[in-house]
Amino acid sequence: MQNFDIVVIGSGPGGYVAAIRAGQLGFKTAIIEREALGGVCLNVGCIPSKAMITATHMLHRAQHDFPTMGLNIKGGIDVDMKKLVGWKQSVSDKMSGGVKQLLKGNNVTVFQGQADFKTNKEITVKSSTGTESIQAKYFIVATGSRPIEIGGFPFDEKDICSSTGALAFDAIPKRIVVIGGGYIGLEISSYLRKLGTEVTILEAQSSLLAGVVDADCAQVVTRKLEKSGVKVIYGAKAKSQKKTKDGYEVTYDLNGKDEVVKTDKILVTVGRRPNGDQSNLKAAGIAVDERGFIKVDAQRRTNVAHIFAIGDICGQPMLAHKASHEGVMVPEIISGINRVYDAKTVPAVVFTDPEIAAAGMTEAEAKTKGYNDLLISKFPFAANGRAVSMMETDGFIKMIADKKTHVVLGIHIVGPEASNLISEAVLAIEMGARLEDIALSIHPHPTLGETMMEAAEAALGHAIHIIQKPLTSATKGAHA
Ligand code: NAI
To answer: What's the pLDDT score for residue 304?
Structure first.
């Protein structure tokens, strides 16, 4: 029997961050992982998908933008899919290896195996070499989520895949049917299309990313995706699949009628579910809600006082950076620091082409919260010198502020580097910034960041690089 101060279960971006912080704070810490260090994010999620997106974006630019820039590639570009997937794997391995080093450097003991609660003070860790028991004063459950499987589409991760299988394709599929046009479906569809795959998306709702991101932002991506040749069928509910001699036939319901689409591969991305049915949480008396999320308070404490839960397992939004934020917080709380989870905004990014990123409220959310008078601007990347010089002008920054106070309520970006630009928006919202705070901060030229400054100026009525109505006595002194 081994004893620790803190045992973290799961080594994703929630768990490994928690273990490192616990180590930094001087706790005798252990972390348990049944698969690779870094969890879904580093190994079969965020990081490998970004590697594929980066490579295929470069390919696309070489094929489509290079000739305009006078860069001629003689004889075309061959895609060595096995090598590409190998490189993608090396990126994940490097990151996972980095986590291993960081854990070691912070004196965290790593156990490889499946952790299950025996009591609320003890877990067992089962591995190929046997089972051992571990006791701890505190536990942090960071066991994450897994892809939802739908009836009739059992994952074999070769032909009928979740994101895990799709990320591992070592040959470019000729045809793929993607069920679900959300975050994951669109990221994978975008890069497979750039590799030449014929992509058909079956989306149950009437638009892509419905209710997930600002509708204007989603529309820019939808238009570009459809222009690139991706076929989207709206209002389509996948029902079943049948193996045929040259692939699969997927049957879906469209307005009450059965339709069929032929394909070679099927990707199911209809959401993720928490792993609340695993790790024998019951033995510790940990309360789980009807959807499988562990119930926690604002300090991420479960109903059992010395057991905490962080990341996907304890609720929406199921995003890596929210998990990491909680991972830093919980060991600090255990050490006696008075902290609670009180983020004003959790940014969200969809790595489509162009990228979508958001922080704060949408217009509809602002209205529901009682902000009836809003200032809303949209500043296009086409009016930004850096975007033009990059040949990446699709999209805009949309800024939403309270008309009375000018306090920024929401910033929604669709365009180049939206994923990097959004951090300024997060800081602005966390600091309660007014439009003037952004507009009067000197942004370096020539950068995409100037778009943020101009969007704030536009909301105040006087952006320089778009034509707006002449200033009035009300808008003239807005900076004062
Ligand atoms: P999602 O919830 O984003 O989208 C699922 C889509 O599937 C919805 O549009 C829904 O209408 C549709 N759908 C559901 N059942 C269907 C059916 N039978 N037939 C056709 N369409 C159907 O789910 P997704 O893409 O699997 O992502 C899961 C989670 O993973 C996200 O909520 C997100 O939090 C996280 N994630 C975050 C990423 C990022 O931060 N960039 C990237 C990937 C995932």
So the answer is: 98
Q: For the chain, what is the total number of helices (H) and then of strands (E)?
A: 15, 22
Q: Is the CB of 349 under 6 A from ligand 1?
A: yes
Average pLDDT (179-183) is: 97
Contact 182 CB / ligand 1 (< 6 Å): yes
- Do 326 and 371 reside in the same domain of the chain? no
The answer to whether 306 is a known catalytic residue is no
Rounded Cα distance, 148 and 104, in Å: 34
SS3 280: coil
Question: DSSP character for 312?
Answer: G
- How far, in Å, is the centroid of ligand 1 from the Cα of 268? 9
In this structure, the number of other CB atoms found within 10 A of the CB of residue 226 comes to 13
Average confidence (pLDDT) over 405-429: 98
Query: Measured from the CB, is residue 356 less than 6 Å from ligand 1?
Result: no
Residue 436 lies in a domain: yes
Q: Are residues 52 and 132 in the same domain?
A: yes
Q: What contacts 24+ positions apart, CB below 8 Å, involve 71-79? A: 79/172, 79/195
Strands 145-147 and 272-274 turn out to be antiparallel
Q: What gap in Å lies between CA 158 and CA 166, rounded to an integer?
A: 8
- Residues 80 and 131 reside in one and the same domain: yes
- Ligand 1 contact via 13 beta carbon (within 6 Å): no
6, two tokens: 């803190």
Q: How many beta carbons lie within 10 A of that of residue 110, not counting itself?
A: 16
> Which residues is 160 bridged to in the sheet?
266
Would the pTM of this model clear 0.85, i.e. be above it?
yes
Give the domain CATH number at 17: 3.50.50.60
Pick from 270, 286, 311: which residue ends a domain? 270
Q: Which domain holds residue 70?
A: 2-147+273-334
Residue 186 CA, ligand 1 centroid: distance in Å: 9
**Cα(313) to centroid of ligand 1, in Å?**
16
- Examine the domain organization and report whether 314 and 434 are in the same domain: no
Residue 24 pLDDT grade (very low, low, confident, very high; cuts 50, 70, 90): very high
10 and 141 Cβ atoms separated by less than 8 Å: yes
Choose which residue among 183, 202, 221, 258 to substitute to test ligand 1 binding: the one with the highest number of ligand atoms within 8 A of its C-beta. 183
First to last CA, the chain: 67
